[in-house]
Specification:
Two copies of one chain form a homodimer. Chain A is an alpha+beta fold. The first copy, chain A, has eight helices and 14 strands. In chain A, helix 1 packs parallel to helix 3 and helix 2 runs parallel beside helix 3. Strand 1 of chain A pairs antiparallel with strand 2 of chain B, so a sheet runs across the interface.
Chain lengths: 331, 331
C-alpha cells in the first residue's frame, strides 16, 4: 500500500484496511472504527459546534502541515468561542495516487496536535476521487466543545483591543513554501492551539467581551466583522500591531498588508477598559502571548459599525474587509 | 454573481456575501453567520457524533442531488446509532467557476431535507480551490444527536436480520445518471432520511439489537462488519432480499451484485427472534418500510465472525466485504 487507489474509498476491504492501518493507529479511536457514529458524554449545558474544511497548498509548510492546521483551526474556533474542546471529527477527501506515506505524516501530526490540545478525534470518514478531481488531500473537521461562557458582556466605548502576538506569519509562511514568488524567507507558520491558553485567561480574569481568531482575511477582516456585528466603531493605532521584521519585509516587497494576512495561532480580544492591562499582563506570561499588545480602542457605538486606523499624525482612514483575492488556499 | 471565484473563498467581502445570499438564506441560521462556532443546547446524557464527506458524481441524479444526500446521509448515521439528530454542520469545497445557480439548487435541497428530518444546519464553512483542483463541489458534514439508546443487547443465535426495503437503488441510479454505460433505466435513488422512522420503531418496540444503514459497500459489507465486530455467524436466505426488477435487470447486464450496491435510505436490523415479526409488521406500516423483509438469521457466535448465503438448494457460500472497485464516488 504505497499510494491511494479508488478502491480505498469504496467502503470495502481496502477502506477498512486504510482505516485500521492509518487512522485508528494514529488516533487510537479503535472502539468506534467501522461504526456510523461515535459516542461522547455531555454534562449538559450548552455546546459550541464548529466546522472547517482545509485545502491549504502546499500541504507541508514551515511550521506545520494540513493536518496540524486542521486540528489547531478546529480547536481555536472552539477556544475563541469560550468553549473547552470535547471532541472533533475528521473527514478526508483523497486524490487517487496520493502517497500513503504523506497521509501517514499528516495523520500523525493531527494525532500529536490533538493530544497537545487534549481533544479526542472521535469519528472519521474517507473518500477517494479520481486523479485530477482533487488536489492531494482535503481535510474536513467539526469540533464540539463545552461552553463555559468565559467571555461576554456588551462592547462599550472605551473598551480595548488586544492581539496575542505577531500577525501575518501564516500567510507569509504559505507564500514562501509555495516558492512561487522567488521569496526567500524563514518565517514559520504560527499554527498552534489557543486552548488551553484562552481558557486560563478568561477563567481567571473578568472583562473579556469577545475573542476571535483572525484566520482567512486577517486581523482587519475579523475586527470589521466584530464592528458590524456589534454596531461599534473601533480605532486601531498605527504602529502598535506586532509584525515580525521578516513578515514586514516580505509584505513591503510583495505589496501585502499584514493586517489582511492569515494567522493560525493568534487571538484578538475586545476587553473592558479597566481590565485591559491585567489581561495583557496575563497573556504575556504565556509562551504564545509574549508579544501581546493593546492595539486599539472602541470609540463609539450605533450605526452599521466600522473599523478605523488612526495614524501617528492623528488622521483616520477606514479599514474594510478583505476585498478580492489575496492568497488562495491558505487554510 | 454567476460563478464561484477564488475570492469567494478568501474570507473577505465576497465570502461574506456568498454566505448571506446562499447559505444563511437557505438554512436560516442568521444569528451564527460570521462567527466561529454555533451554540446548541444539550440536555446532558450521551451524544452521538458522526462525520461524512460527499463527493458523488454526477452532482444531480434521479431522486436527489449531492445536497439531499449530504443531509440524509448524516441524519441516517445518527438514526441508525439510536440518536435523535440535534444539529448538523455543512462545509463546502467549491471549484472555481462552479455555477452559483447549481450551488443554490443544492443548498435549497439541503434546507428542504433538513426541515423534513427536523435537524438544524448550525455551522458552515466555504473554501474555494482553483479550476481543476476539485470536481465542482464536495460537501462535508458532521452530525450531533442525542442518544436515546433505542437499540442494544448482545446478538444471539436465532436473532433475525431485517432489511427495511429494496437494495441497490442508489447505486444503479448513480450509474444510470452517469450514462457512461449506455444504461437506460428510470431507477431513482432511495436517498431519504431514516429519522424519525427508526426512532418510532425502536422507542415503541423492544428487541432491536443493532441498526445500520448499508451505504458504500452495500448490504453485504454492512453485515460482514456486524458479524466481525460482534463475532457471530449470520446466514442470509437467497431470494429473500428485496430488489427492484429494474435494479435486478441492470445488475444482470452489468455483472453487479445488488448486495454490494449502495443504498441511501435503507436500514438493516438485527433483532431478537421473538420480536422479529412484530418489528417487521411495524416497519411495513411506514412508507419507507413497506417492502421490509426478514432476510436471514444468526446461526452461531464465537470466532472471527462471518456472513454466509444459504441457497435455495441448502448449500452455503461465504460473503466477504466489497473487495476492490465497484462504483467510484457514489456518495
Amino acid at each position: 500500500m504505497k499510494r491511494i487507489s479508488l478502491a480505498h474509498g469504496e467502503g470495502g476491504e481496502l477502506t477498512e484496511r486504510l482505516i485500521r492501518d492509518v487512522f485508528v493507529k494514529a488516533f487510537g479511536n479503535e472502539e468506534h472504527a467501522g461504526y456510523d457514529a461515535a459516542v461522547i458524554g455531555s454534562a449538559g449545558g450548552k455546546l459550541a459546534v464548529t466546522t472547517d474544511s482545509f485545502v491549504v497548498k502546499p500541504l507541508f509548510f514551515p511550521g506545520g502541515n494540513i493536518g496540524t492546521l486542521a486540528v489547531t483551526g478546529t480547536v481555536n474556533d472552539l477556544a475563541v468561542s469560550g468553549a473547552v474542546p470535547l471532541a472533533m471529527t475528521a473527514g478526508f477527501i483523497l486524490e487517487e495516487g496520493f502517497p500513503v506515506s504523506d497521509l501517514k505524516a499528516i495523520v500523525s501530526s493531527m494525532a500529536a496536535e490533538a493530544a497537545k490540545a487534549g481533544v479526542a478525534i472521535v469519528a472519521g470518514d474517507t473518500k477517494v476521487v479520481s486523479k485530477g478531481e482533487a488536489d492531494g488531500v482535503f481535510i474536513n473537521t467539526a469540533g464540539i466543545g463545552r461552553l463555559y461562557g468565559g467571555s461576554g458582556g456588551e462592547i462599550r466605548e472605551g473598551d480595548k483591543v488586544i492581539i496575542s502576538g505577531t500577525v501575518g506569519d501564516h500567510g507569509i509562511a504559505i507564500l514562501s513554501a509555495r516558492n512561487e514568488l522567488g521569496l526567500l524567507s524563514d518565517v514559520k507558520s504560527d499554527c498552534a492551539s489557543l486552548h488551553p491558553m484562552l481558557g486560563a485567561i478568561t477563567e481567571g480574569l473578568s472583562g473579556v467581551r469577545i475573542m476571535r481568531d483572525p484566520t482567512r482575511g486577517g486581523l482587519a477582516t475579523a475586527l470589521v466583522e466584530i464592528c458590524e456585528h456589534h454596531h461599534v466603531t473601533m480605532e486601531l493605532w498605527e504602529g502598535t500591531v506586532p509584525v515580525k521584521r521578516e513578515v514586514e519585509g516580505a509584505c513591503d516587497i510583495l505589496g501585502f498588508d499584514p493586517l489582511y494576512l492569515a494567522n493560525e495561532g493568534k487571538a484578538v480580544f475586545v476587553t473592558a477598559e479597566e481590565d485591559a492591562e491585567r489581561i495583557l499582563a496575563r497573556l504575556r506570561r504565556e509562551d504564545r502571548g509574549k508579544q501581546a499588545q493593546i492595539i486599539g480602542t472602541v470609540t463609539g457605538s450605533g450605526g452599521a459599525g466600522k473599523l478605523l486606523m488612526r495614524t501617528a499624525a492623528g488622521a483616520t482612514r477606514r479599514l474594510h474587509r478583505l476585498s478580492g483575492l489575496l492568497l488562495p488556499r491558505i487554510c
